[in-house]
Amino acid sequence: MDYTRFFFCTCGRFPFIGYILLTLWLLILFYTLGNTAADYFCCSLEKLSKLLNCPPTVAGVTLLPLGNGAPDVFASVAAFIGAGVGQVGLNSVLGGGLFITTFIAGLVSLSTKNPESVQLDRKSFIRDVSFYFFTIISLLVILLVGHVYLWSALMFLSIYGLYAIAVAASELLKKKYKRPQFSQIQLLPFTTGPSVLEIEENTLNRPLLDATQSPSTQTGMEKKTLPQWRWASNVAIYSQQHPPKGGEISQPLWGWGDDQTTSVWRMMGYLLQWPLSIPRRLTIPVVEDDRWSRISALTSAGLAPVFVALVFDSQDDVAFKDNLFLYGGALVVSLLLVALAFKTTKSEHPPRRFLLPWVVGGFFMSIVWFFVVANELVALLVTFGTMLNIDPSILGLTVLAWGNSMGDLMANTALARNGGDGVQIALSGCYAGPMFNTLIGLGISLVLGSWRSRPQAFILQHDDSIYYTVGFLVAGLVWALITLPVNKMQPSKPLGFGLLTLYIIFLGYRLARVLGFFPVSG
Predict the structure, then answer these.
(1) Which residue stretches of 2-121 are H helix?
(2) Do 249 and 215 touch, CB atoms closer than 8 A?
(3) What pLDDT band is residue 102 in, cutting at 50, 70 and 90?
(4) Helix, strand or coil for residue 254?
(5) Strand runs (DSSP E) across 102-222, as ranges?
(6) Cα–Cα distance between 218 and 28 in angstroms, integer?
(7) Choice among 71-85, 93-107, 294-308, 409-423 with the minimum mean pLDDT
(8) Taking residues 212-224, what's their average pLDDT?
(9) What is the mean pLDDT of residues 89-112?
(10) Is the CB of residue 224 less than 8 Å from the CB of residue 216?
(11) Distances (CA, A) of 123 to 211, 228, 489
(12) Helices and strands: H and E segment counts in the chain
């Protein structure tokens, strides 16, 4: 949509109507982005984990961060590639990282239940913060150079591969040292269940994203300290689906004290659900048992290729008649997929055979919808910048970063209030999550940008304000690295108030620059 024309031309005489409608549409886009992750993308990730039998160490550094960071990642890609405003995507990722590592991490530290009884893992914390620090320094080098080639973009992206290997290796070593020795095993007679070693082996190879496991079957520590569906904060915040059946929920989602807050949120979601859900339900395959519909599956198989063709057609200036070959190919693929789906599916239940193509299709179509919604979101923020005479990168640094971080805010603070192991997960998420968004979101954006401009370098737009963001981000990391070890790896008020103060100073400085109290170079 051409939002600028809509505001200045369509709503020219009544600008307040334009402000109301575009603000409402901005909220709807944020909701749609999070709800797509919750009700479609994370479901596909869950099924992929089960079908591929991913061990927890693999899923924990690949599928889980992707489920939580999908809105940030695709908003960044859309800003660089779709809307062509790389500064919005860059400021969104860095602003989100600063918001999470200072404001949210500070709230986590201050809201921790019984902080004196919490002991964080020193090695894991130093590993996560060090990798994130190295990531920011590498990005700073790229920004100072001002351009990036394909090989250097791939090197930046590969940093996350090194981090994933480090996490997997450390977790496997922990499992190895915890594995009982044969000399310590006492064989008990008349036992018919699995042995200790078999139980440990099954634990190592069990999928982490197993929604069929109810809280009653979890270990005692997880049941006491971890809220349900801790693997994807978007699910708890944006999902319109109910938790999986199979056991009673021992506590509300994300530790909220009653159902009033969630019921109000769900009521608002239901009012918007149908007009927002129908287009996605007709194009994204869903193979969940409680959401299975053969008619919807056949419809998505037929409409998905056509929708992909429409998205590709919208990305160029070629007339519709010049893309008839594209739509003809999409129609042929649609007919073929509908025929195969009709032959291999039943009305009673999702397909038991050939399930992987359905899951991959849902995964791919969720990504397509991410790109579409994120592209509109970035374009709308650019229009707001024009309407308010504000640099769109400032809106990316604040509005887009805050909107995409609401899931982390609600989830991590709730985990901290539960105490115990939840504090470790919350603080780890405050650093591992932004690192994933930076390396994957900006990494993929830089790779795609340099690929399109090869053999020349991909030129990055110059923005001095990014250096201030990086400076405050590094200051927050250094403060956490100093205060936590000094306080014996226990959350404390100096850590929390220090991080919150950093973010307040940063916001005050950026607001002062916007209002003209500080000169802006260029």
Answers:
(1) 3-5, 15-36, 42-52, 56-59, 63-77, 86-98, 105-110
(2) yes
(3) very high
(4) helix
(5) 147-148
(6) 36
(7) 71-85
(8) 39
(9) 87
(10) no
(11) 30, 27, 10
(12) 23, 2
